[in-house]
Specification:
The protein is of the alpha/beta class. Helix content is 22%, strand content 28%. The longest helix has 17 residues.
Length: 250
């Protein structure tokens, strides 16, 4: 562990979506409770055991902006530790997804495809109750109800046109390590690449991101990005297509 206490960071996907056509408003209206994918195993007595399979939500696909395989990003961060943590997260996603390049926007950061910044997560943005970063559940556990927020802007066909990620600036007030900030950034970047949440609490895209347990971008999450953006990353088509699946079984 990198901290003296176990830190569980709950990262909640809260979408503030700008649509040019309201008919696409239901594109993100999914919940893990809708899915009933099951797997079967056998217990010691040879009886079939049916359980719900782990799965990852597929949110949406990038627009024609991904046609060259490049998404440009910008980072707004005063603190060196925060900037480096975000850079590390970007580099890991960049190396994991073949056919995708994440490149820093040098000329005009304000028009980059993915904007990442540190700021206040207030009630107006998160539609959540005010959270207390000092809410200690017990002596060894600190619960963070919301540490990151991803906003999508869609084009008139319902494809992702740009994203904005805000990581709570309170991570600095609470002296979170660069390692934890990197986990938060990787989780939110997963959303920006088209992923929803996983029902597997041990995965990076789960609501609860646990230090030293959910830091790795798994094969399931990699496959999820390919599925979300299959028109480009799998099929090399010129025109965007919406994902054919709303979740991937992991």
């Amino acid at each position: 562990m990198r901290l003296h206490s176990l830190v569980i960071v709950a990262i909640i996907l809260l979408l503030t979506i700008t649509f040019t056509k309201p008919s696409f408003a239901s594109i993100n209206g999914f919940s893990t409770s809708k899915y009933h994918s099951v797997s079967t195993s056998v217990d010691d007595d040879g009886n079939a055991v049916i359980k719900q399979a782990d799965h990852l939500q597929i949110c949406c696909s990038w627009s024609i902006k991904l046609s060259d395989g490049i998404l440009k990003y910008s980072i707004y961060a005063q603190e060196k530790e925060g900037r480096q943590a975000v850079i590390n997260a970007i580099k890991e996603w960049d190396t994991k997804i073949e056919g995708l390049q994440l490149i820093k926007e040098e000329q005009n950061p304000s028009v980059s495809d993915i904007r990442i910044m540190f700021g206040e997560l207030d009630n107006d943005r998160t539609r959540n109750r005010y959270y207390d970063f000092k809410n200690n559940v017990d002596e060894g556990l600190t619960l963070i109800p919301s540490a990151g927020w991803t906003q999508f802007t869609f084009d008139n066909q319902g494809f992702i046109d740009s994203t904005k990620i805000i990581i709570s600036e309170d991570v600095f007030d609470q002296d979170f390590s660069e390692y934890i900030i990197e986990q938060i950034a990787k989780h939110e970047l997963g959303h920006a690449l088209g992923l929803g949440h996983s029902n597997n609490e041990g995965s990076l895209m789960a609501n609860l991101v646990i230090e030293d347990e959910t830091a790795t971008i798994s094969e399931c999450e990699i496959d999820g990005v390919y599925t979300a953006n299959s028109w480009k990353l799998k099929d090399s088509k010129q025109n965007p297509e919406h994902p054919q699946r709303m979740f991937a079984v992991c």
